[in-house]
């Protein structure tokens, strides 16, 4: 019994000696004292790592899309193609991008720069079902041409509706609410580079939350609202608007007060602002807008024939 | 609603199944060799069945060659319950978000000293306490907040403030009783309609509702006819597409081929007539497996949602 601890002590002594020898051989430097964290202009420490805020809650409407809507949209838009069907005929020769002799030669798109509008939508598989990419809200405040302080109300309203601010939660791609400036000088209407409006891009779970508040609080309470008007069935499926996979509509100024985020303290806003809402999706090609309408009606956004 | 290409495709392929049905019987038996057999069935069993099959086909009308099945779905009415891992993850992310969030510019959104500002500050304090466990957030003007909060009545509500809504329970009466006929059960799962009916041999089986396709009838028209029959009259349904979502090949030939269609129930309930359909149940995916035939289950299980 008494021999065992003695052996252990001897072993540990030998071990420590060995380690000391190893350390001496390496000539390890002492640890340099760590510098204190850098601080930003508000005096808050900047962490070593780039912290990014991810999803903070389950998104009910996003789950509805992934569990129910996605399957249904795939079944609805599926076109059966027999296995032995021929590939589409090439209208004219184009350079092979893999060929080293013509590698960097300009390969003009067949059919001109607007050929993408005439491209048929790719056959639907479980991977490329139409998906919402982002929602853009946009408003123009005409009075801002006189004084740009008129933009403040619209800016704050968009901040409240979207809940976004620039680079929030460490996400560098989040632009937050942005100021829109005039592109051209138009006499009596617009000045070049004058701030005239605000816009915000909403993505991710916030996008689905926006659809939720739009569908449950805003649209049902707009007076004399039957649905979003659709173009006539005879209208072209090749136009840029029909093929770019975007559905847009306008909300009247009175609709701003119906968002619960705004309704809470409507008195704080100097004015009511109407807005354009753009639903931007992954579909591109002939008649893609109709696919977007299918998707949006799955979120219970109503459409009517004009 | 559909693009022109999609409509064109429907038009072009609309008569395909008619060609299939009007195919002569001998050809159907002979060409079965080219169709891959399902598991557990050998060429020998098919050959042994062939004389029997031919006699069967003689007296059978064409409409039993192809039938349509309906996968009638009640989609989830409740959000899925997050797993413990998801809950921890969301709580962690919510704390990071709270630590990094931009403070609200209250001077724009609220009049200083207003009732709304008092309510907001109180709620903000509660959120801070929930995240960090201490009241780290102090309202800027203490007097204004106190004046607004001083008028609380005994229930802790400010004048003009509504009491917070009470949430309904996630489990319903049907869940507690184990009532498989109720549509209120399992709110966070996809439920599917299963009916008890007699098969070709006169045996009681559980299966999805199915119907024979008449001559000169399209597949999806048969589905709509079935949903307009006395069984489906008590409910509002929506058939998702004109195209089938799956095909079930029977292991033994004389049984019909089943083309499945997906549909959603929007309102109402099934009415079993007691003759062709004895009983029904609304079941989730794993509840269907023990009720149906093994081959049938292998054919349909991939059409059903795991959730």
UniProtKB/TrEMBL annotation, chain A:
One Pfam family this sequence matches: Ribosomal_L5_C
Alphabetical list of InterPro entries matching this protein: Ribosomal_uL5, Ribosomal_uL5_C, Ribosomal_uL5_dom_sf
An individual GO BP term: translation
Domain of life per record: Eukaryota
Coiled coil: none
An example Gene Ontology CC term for this record: ribosome
Domain Large ribosomal subunit protein uL5 C-terminal, first and last residues per copy: 195-303
Keywords for the protein's UniProt record, in alphabetical order: Ribonucleoprotein, Ribosomal protein
Molecular function terms from GO: structural constituent of ribosome
Family label: Belongs to the universal ribosomal protein uL5 family.
PANTHER family xrefs: 60S RIBOSOMAL PROTEIN L11-RELATED
Protein name (Swiss-Prot/TrEMBL): Ribosomal protein L5
Species per Swiss-Prot/TrEMBL record: Phanerochaete sordida
Automatic annotation (TrEMBL), chain B:
Protein localization: Mitochondrion
PROSITE patterns membership: NUDIX
Molecular function in Gene Ontology: structural constituent of ribosome
Principal localisation: mitochondrion
InterPro entries in the record: NUDIX_hydrolase-like_dom_sf (IPR015797), NUDIX_hydrolase_dom (IPR000086), Ribosomal_mL46 (IPR040008), Ribosomal_mL46_N (IPR021757), Ribosomal_mL46_NUDIX (IPR033650)
A Pfam family: MRP-L46
Domain Nudix hydrolase: 174-305
Keyword Ribosomal protein listed: yes
Biased composition (Basic and acidic residues): 172-182
Keyword Ribosomal protein belongs to the record: yes
GO CC annotation, single: mitochondrial large ribosomal subunit
PANTHER family in UniProt: 39S RIBOSOMAL PROTEIN L46, MITOCHONDRIAL PRECURSOR-RELATED (PTHR13124), LARGE RIBOSOMAL SUBUNIT PROTEIN ML46 (PTHR13124:SF12)
Family from the record: Belongs to the mitochondrion-specific ribosomal protein mL46 family.
Protein name stated in the entry: Large ribosomal subunit protein mL46
Organism: Phanerochaete sordida
């Amino acid at each position: 019994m008494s021999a065992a601890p003695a052996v252990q002590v001897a072993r540990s002594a030998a071990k420590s000696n060995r380690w000391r020898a190893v350390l001496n051989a390496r000539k390890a430097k002492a640890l340099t004292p760590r510098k204190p964290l850098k601080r930003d202009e508000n005096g808050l420490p900047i962490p070593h790592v780039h912290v990014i805020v991810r999803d903070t809650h389950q998104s009910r409407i996003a789950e509805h899309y992934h569990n129910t809507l996605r399957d249904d949209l795939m079944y609805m838009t599926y076109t059966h193609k027999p296995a032995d069907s021929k590939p589409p005929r090439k209208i004219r020769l184009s350079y092979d991008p893999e060929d080293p002799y013509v590698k960097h030669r300009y390969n003009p798109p067949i059919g001109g720069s607007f050929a993408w509008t005439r491209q048929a939508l790719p056959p639907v598989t479980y991977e490329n079902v139409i998906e919402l990419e982002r929602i853009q809200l946009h408003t123009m405040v005409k009075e801002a041409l006189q004084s740009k302080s008129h933009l403040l109300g619209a800016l704050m309203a968009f901040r409240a509706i979207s809940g976004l601010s620039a680079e929030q939660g460490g996400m560098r791609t989040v632009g937050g609410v942005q100021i829109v400036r005039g592109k051209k000088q138009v006499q009596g209407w617009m000045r070049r580079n004058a701030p005239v409006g605000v816009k915000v891009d909403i993505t991710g779970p916030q996008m689905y939350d926006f659809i939720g508040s739009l569908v449950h609080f805003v649209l049902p309470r707009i007076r004399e609202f039957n649905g979003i008007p659709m173009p006539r069935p005879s209208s072209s499926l090749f136009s840029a608007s029909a093929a770019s996979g975007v559905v847009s509509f306008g909300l009247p100024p009175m609709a701003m007060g119906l968002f619960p985020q705004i309704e809470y303290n409507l008195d704080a806003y100097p004015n009511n602002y109407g807005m354009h809402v753009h639903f931007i999706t992954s579909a591109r090609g002939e008649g893609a807008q109709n696919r977007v309408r299918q998707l949006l009606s799955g979120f219970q956004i109503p459409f009517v024939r004009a | 609603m559909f693009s022109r290409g999609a409509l064109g495709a429907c038009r072009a392929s609309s008569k395909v199944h008619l060609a299939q049905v009007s195919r002569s019987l001998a050809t159907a038996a002979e060409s079965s060799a080219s169709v891959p057999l399902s598991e557990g069935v050998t060429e020998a069993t098919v050959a042994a069945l062939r004389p029997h099959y031919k006699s069967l086909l003689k007296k059978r009308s064409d409409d039993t060659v192809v039938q349509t099945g309906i996968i009638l779905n009640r989609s989830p009415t409740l959000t899925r319950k997050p797993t413990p891992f998801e809950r921890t993850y969301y709580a962690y992310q919510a704390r990071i978000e709270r630590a990094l969030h931009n403070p609200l510019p209250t001077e724009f959104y609220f009049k200083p000293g207003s009732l709304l500002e008092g309510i907001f500050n109180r709620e903000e304090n509660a959120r801070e306490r929930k995240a960090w466990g201490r009241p780290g957030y102090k309202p800027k003007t203490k007097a204004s907040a106190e004046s607004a909060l001083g008028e609380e009545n005994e229930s802790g509500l400010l004048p003009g403030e509504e009491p917070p809504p009470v949430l309904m329970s996630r489990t319903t009466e049907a869940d507690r009783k184990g009532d498989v006929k109720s549509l209120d059960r399992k709110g966070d799962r996809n439920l599917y309609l299963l009916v008890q009916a007699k098969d070709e041999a006169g045996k009681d089986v559980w299966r999805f509702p199915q119907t024979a396709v008449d001559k000169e009838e399209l597949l999806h028209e048969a589905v709509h006819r079935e949903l307009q029959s006395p069984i489906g009259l008590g409910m509002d349904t929506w058939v998702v597409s004109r195209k089938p979502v799956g095909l079930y090949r029977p292991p033994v030939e004389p049984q019909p081929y089943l083309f499945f269609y997906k549909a959603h129930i929007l309102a109402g309930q099934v009415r079993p007539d007691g003759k062709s359909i004895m009983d029904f149940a609304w079941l989730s995916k794993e509840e269907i497996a023990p009720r149906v035939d093994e081959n049938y289950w292998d054919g349909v299980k991939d059409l059903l949602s795991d959730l």
